[in-house]
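Write out this protein's structure.
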Amino acid sequence: MKFILFFLTLLFAFSAHTQPPENTNSSTNFSNQESLEETEIQRIAPSIEMDSVSMKIKSESTRDYKNVTPKRSKESKGYSSAHKMQSKQLLETESKKVKYQSNSRSPSIMSQQIMDVEVEKLKEIDDQSFEYHLYNYVSGNYDEKRQESLYKAQSIDAENQEVQKLMVANSLVQGDLKSAKNNLILLANNGVLSKETIAYTEDVLISAEDNELLLTHGTNDSYGAIYNQQIQGNKFSSIHVVSLELMKSESYRKSMRSKGIEVPNRKSVDVQFFVELCRLNSNKGISISMTFPLAYLKPLADQLIPYGLVLKTGSQKKLCASDLEDLWNHQLNKKNLTKFNSAESKNYARNYRPTKKILNDYYNSKQSNYYMKSIGVQKTKKKKPR
């Protein structure tokens, strides 16, 4: 029990150093992000006004009267352009708000309502526009029925990075790993899936190698892990990567169930959903990416075992600190500690600190029987002497 308490203390001591939601490179927290977005909304009105003024100036300076559109039509076009811009800004704001939530992957009821209303406005303005098709898919939370909108957005702007990332998600919710692999290679080639993320998530997979499930939180840890699986062939094929982000899709849930993974019967993908997901699959070895926000981990704190770049729970074998020592010295690539020197690599480097701390304490204690046990491991009771 003392050992379990030691790890709980260690977990929360390092919680401030772990990656923020969505593996962002920025140190800006969600509240700051939200304030920035509100400022952006406040700037919408002036930008709309300037857009309308610029259109009027252009019409007044035109000398080719034969091709001049009637004034009412021009005003209508300016009005539509302004409202299109406003809807786009609001949709971007709500999408970011959902992305950086620390306790849920699903949009709030209010956020969903805002997105639905603004998508309808974009449809009324121009149902063939890139913005309408992109946000029609985004607001659908990976609904397979809306994939035609994603394909149309791709046909309009195939170079758009958000479209490229969503194409990966759409492939994964359908269980089309071949298409997902091709799209992930595209993301890696154009730098959207960074070399730092690829190196980091390879170490996540190495840390999770003895377990059946690897639970990931956002886009980077999910895409990076699946990329490594697909590129490295059979090396990590025994691990099922389960993305909490993609659990918003009913198609993805169905795909997970077909692999023998129990999925909670909850609509909202939040902390409660995550805790129940772990409980339903406790008969399996589960690894949890350290990129999960602390809100998800607190309810399971007495059941988590830090090991490399994951927290292990569920059905676990006994782990000796010498196993962790071997993982650290001979298996992890640690490129974000030794090779890369970007802001992103420095963020990832923080998640290696718990293992370094554990090993330092192990060396200082000189205890060869230094075991990590989950709460589910039954201790052998000693027989009382007669």
